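--- STAGE predict ---
source: upstream dedup step, 1 unique chain passed
mode: sequence only
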Amino acid sequence: MRCPHCQTENREDRVACYHCGRDLTMMRLIVNRARIHFNNAVEQAKELNYFEALGELNSALELNARLVEAHVLKGSILGRLERVDEAREALQEALRISPQAARAHRYLLELGDVEKSTPLRKRLGLVYGIAGTVTALAVVVGIGVFVRPGGAPPPRDTPNGGTAWSLLAAGDLAGARASAANLPHEQRAALEAAADRRVDDALELSRVALEAGGAPAALEALRKLDDLKLGAEDRRVVERQRALIATSEAEKLAALLTGIVAHTSEAHEAPAAQIASFAEAKDRYTKLFPESTDVLDRALANPRTEARALVESRLADDGASDSVAAAKSLAGVAPLAALVNMDDAVTERLSAFSLRDGERLYGEALAAARDGKQDAFDAALEAIRALPIPQREIESKTEALRSLLVEREQRDLVASIHKALDSGERETALQLAASLEAMGGKPSPELAQQLNAARERVAIDSYYRLMEWGDRIEAGELSRDEAEEVHRLVALARGPLPQRLASKATDNLHFFAAQAWRVLGESEKAWDEMGELRRIHPDSVYLQVE
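--- STAGE serialize ---
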């Protein structure tokens, strides 16, 4: 049994491919079915029913073209029927699949030798054991005895006898049935039974495939009948089987939709994964059964009615007591509404909820912004974002609220800056001014002048404090906390120093910063500070000391 995925040969009893691990259940079903046809062929051959045996062999080889023993048996029967070229082709195919098929080798050699000097009937007798008194022909390849000794092909003394069975073997069931009309009753009945069995086998395989692999596998089994020339009645039987497969798949979809409705009713929210599975399965159904959409519509009638009733119950809630909860509940069934063509009604009602709640929440946020109540503002803004409306509408509603809040915060910062300056807390005032600038605010010209003066005063004070530590900094005697304080003072001293200090303070500040970085173990940053010092003051005494 060959794995269809990796083409590895496996034993016929394998459940999974020992090489790639893929499931071989379907292949086992097909191989077993082929084996059944082969065994039937053996039984027919034993009874000298060669054309029926050929029909069974053809069915077996359609399912498993690598069944070596079927090719060998086919070759032996074709030889008895005087179809030498076809016999040779069947035996050569057996050898192509399995070069170790010894009897196929022997039959081909014997066939080639005797063809050169013996009349056809005698050649066949010599090769296949039917000349004179009949000798036993036991062809054993793998399992089973193929043909019983003795006998002859089906009678050819009746009109169209050979033609009917030949047509059946070739897959022309309609032609075979028509040709059998002139046969004796027993022969006609035998041919009709063989033709019925050909169709029944395909239908049975389709039913097995439906249970094991679903609709695609079942339809694939039926497609093999499309390759045959079926009569009107056979065609009706095949179409009935297709209709049964379509009905089975439609009922599965109906069950899935019923489950979606039940879950949505209990959980108040449609299950996204199941809805996606339903949509995919429905699309697959329409592709597999384009002529059976009415079957699906009938199967889905009841669950669709239940789904619409559920959506309508959510639409009926006007949200008088809790519009936010009503909108959330309605949004939960929106995916289900789309499945039953009610999404427009749900969208319209959600928009109404959103507009009403949005205006109310906007008013709450506006009041909170004006009063400076940050927590209330954040809560209202979060509620607005939770509304089931497009993001662009949310942004348009919240943009004005943000502006109001920012303006309020900027006014508070300006007031705090004035208060800090009045109390002499210059560093605090400068920090608040940095926050104001980060928010996009600008101080008034008068406040800006006061802040510039504060920066200069803070820079001067910071520089002089650093100079008091100068000896300790140069000696590298700072603790880690003191080194961090030096960095803070350096940053402040690099503000707008007066001209009298700025010219001589630069090299001090770079050196002090470098020394502090060394204490903190940041040698690369220390190197950068000294490099900047070399660029600005190449003649600095600190460079000469280094």
